[in-house]
Write a structure and sequence with these properties.
The protein is α+β, with helices and mostly antiparallel strands and 624 residues long. It is built from ten helices and 29 strands. Strand 6 and strand 7 form a beta hairpin.
């Protein structure tokens, strides 16, 4: 009975608040008008509530965080299309938003598919922030993000790749979202797949069912992923840093085409432009007028993260692995401008910094027992440029280079060999590469692992059966990486297990294998966000869940969990004089939402006192 009353109160107060705001009438008059409208059926009220939940169906996300900036993202579900919509955003170090750090508005339009991207600056380094969006009085889920520190002893992230929606459930995403020891998520490409629909577990079929070619097609693929509860949860839990690979466009794509592209369906350049536009709309990546995604982020004394585009900026068309053209010195996978930029980023990093290359495809040498490359779509198909980069690293005495790669669907780790590589003597290595396994896509396999490793002594580890992600902690003295696997992607029920741990020590460009688990930081304790509706705390006491908006103008809404009895709200000005008060009476215990009108009050700084029995809470409130 109490639950029914709570639901009724929630419906009543929500309708009352919307009525007063939209009609610009007082709370008293709003109650009178609403009372005269109670002939509406309960079905109509339910439809109203359902509609109020719709604007943020694709959740929220953040990305490309620096020490003082971050990108906040959401997308509006507009039931009645309009030319543009203006959404409010709020960010705070306080997950309850009792005090707001920054707030503002952002306008989106049908041309942006109603996606919203806000670049917030002047933030505090190494700080956890919480944020949300609001449209027409309806709030989004709360997101959580983190700015980079200027200096730090360590940095921990999870890296993903190859997340085919149809191939299985995103259990790896869920596993990472449940952690509370990360500072960022990296996705190294194939965030979705453009293929036509096949057959996935639990009815996971691509939308649209045909191969993606048009802007609408690519937008729908993004929307499908953003609607997945596990993807949505991870996207709002940590800042993301992303690069694309081929399946955001078409299989084995290069600058001017793809072997899977049909020119009878679409012009390639139009298709590529459509895919890029959708990507920039739907991903929390900083806008770039040239649609270039190579970029760097750094912690001064710890690392420089160098994200490269090995797919769409300068890649020449692939050739057969057995072709003599594979050694052509003119072949490029990055394009000459980006290649020179990469060398500059490596050369100008400090000796203290780990130089981490985030790459969508494997850089390392990988030959079959006949000496033929396993895959000419990765850097092995562009040997001259790859070898030139490794020689540059060696000749310029650039230490502490680590490549982290996606694409190959399996767990690999090895040294980056020069011509005089000798594993026994630990000579001739330019650095180390670790490959991320696939989130859901089927692993690529080497038929005879023992024979392959003998032919490639620089490769130290291969696991080619499991899905999951790479967990990595960078410290001032080492990089420790470990794969985290899920035992099933065919059902939402899964267990996780820890894979091989890879250790890379400072100033030693050779990896080692260890049986120890990844050592995680013990000083991260931000408030983790729940997967579903906001957690309702112990209802034996009054607990304030949210005071919104703050700063406010004509109305502030209080969400709280309280006992039955009288709830007293009083507003005091900066010198302590009581300027307004209101009381509510409850005959049940639980979560509630009440309004405090602010009309007639001058702008300024106030204190709102929330009191029930002997329990009291004082919260600063700014009125604009």
């Amino acid at each position: 009975m109490h639950d029914d009353r709570c639901i009724a109160d929630m419906i009543y107060n929500s309708i009352l608040k919307i009525l007063c705001r939209q009609s610009k009438i007082s709370l008293k008059h709003g109650r009178i008008i609403l009372a005269l409208s109670l002939w509406l059926t309960f079905d109509v009220l339910n439809a109203q509530c359902a509609e109020e939940l719709s604007p943020f169906l694709h959740g929220v996300a953040s990305g490309d965080a620096t020490s003082q900036e971050v990108i906040l993202w959401t997308r509006l579900t507009v039931n009645n299309p309009v030319a543009s919509e203006t959404v409010q955003w709020v960010i705070s170090t306080d997950p309850e938003f009792l005090m707001v750090d920054q707030f503002g508005t952002s306008t989106t339009s049908i041309e942006k598919d109603y996606t919203v991207k806000v670049e917030v600056n002047q933030l505090t380094p190494d700080q956890w922030y919480y944020y949300y969006f609001e449209l027409h009085g309806i709030r989004s889920d709360v997101g959580r993000t983190h700015t980079l520190p200027i200096q730090a002893d360590r940095f921990t992230f999870a890296a993903f790749s190859c997340s085919n929606y149809e191939s299985g459930y995103y259990n790896a995403y869920r596993n990472a979202a449940l952690r509370n020891d990360l500072q960022a998520v990296f996705h190294l490409g194939d965030y979705y797949y453009e293929y036509s629909t096949g057959a996935g577990p639990g009815g996971r079929l691509h939308d649209p069912p045909h191969t993606a070619y048009t802007l609408d097609d690519y937008r729908r693929r993004h929307a499908q992923v953003a609607s997945d509860p596990d993807a949505q949860w991870l996207r709002r839990q940590y800042p993301w840093y992303v690069i694309w690979d081929d399946h955001e466009f078409a299989n084995d794509a290069w600058v001017n085409g793809s072997p899977d592209h049909d020119n009878n369906v679409s012009n390639w350049q139009q298709r590529k432009s459509a895919a890029k536009k959708a990507y920039y709309e739907w991903m929390p990546i900083r806008e770039n007028p040239d649609t270039l995604i190579h970029r760097t982020y750094e912690i001064e004394n710890l690392m420089r993260l160098v994200f490269v585009d090995s797919r769409m900026e300068g890649r020449m068309q692939q050739v057969s692995a057995a072709s003599e053209e594979i050694d052509d010195t003119s072949r490029t996978i990055l394009g000459h401008d980006q290649f020179n930029w990469l060398k500059q980023q490596l050369a100008t990093a400090t000796d203290d910094q780990w130089k981490v290359i985030l790459n969508s495809v494997m850089m390392n040498k990988a030959l079959n027992t006949s000496g033929i490359p396993l895959n000419s779509d990765n850097w092995e198909g562009y040997r001259s440029e790859r070898d030139s980069l490794l020689r540059f690293i060696h000749s310029e005495q650039i230490d502490d280079v680590l490549s982290i790669a996606g694409d190959y669907h399996s767990s690999w780790a090895g040294d980056l060999p020069l011509a005089d590589y000798n594993a026994a003597n630990q000579t001739g290595s330019a650095g180390v590469e670790i490959s991320v396994c696939a989130t859901t896509s089927s692993p690529h396999t080497v038929a005879d692992v023992a024979a392959f490793l003998e032919a490639n002594p620089h490769i130290k580890w291969i696991e080619q059966t499991q899905n999951g992600y790479l967990l990595c902690t960078i410290t001032t003295q080492s990089v420790i990486s470990q794969w985290i696997y899920v035992n099933s992607i065919n059902t939402e029920n899964y267990t996780s297990n820890k894979g091989q741990t890879i250790l890379l020590n400072k100033d030693i460009p050779f990896l080692s294998l260890t049986n120890e688990d990844l050592i995680l930081p013990d000083n991260l304790s931000p408030i983790v966000l729940p997967a579903g509706p906001a957690y309702v705390p112990d209802q034996d006491e009054m607990q304030v869940l949210n005071l919104y908006p703050n700063p406010a103008h004509d109305l502030v809404t209080l969400s709280l969990s309280s006992r039955c009895g009288i709830l007293d709200l009083s507003l005091f000005d900066v010198i302590g004089q009581r300027v307004k008060g209101i009381q509510y009476s409850f005959d049940d215990t639980g979560k509630k939402q009440v309004d405090f009108p602010l009309t007639g009050l001058s702008p300024g700084y106030f204190i709102i006192r929330i009191r029930q029995g002997s329990m009291e809470r004082l919260i600063p409130l700014i009125i604009q």
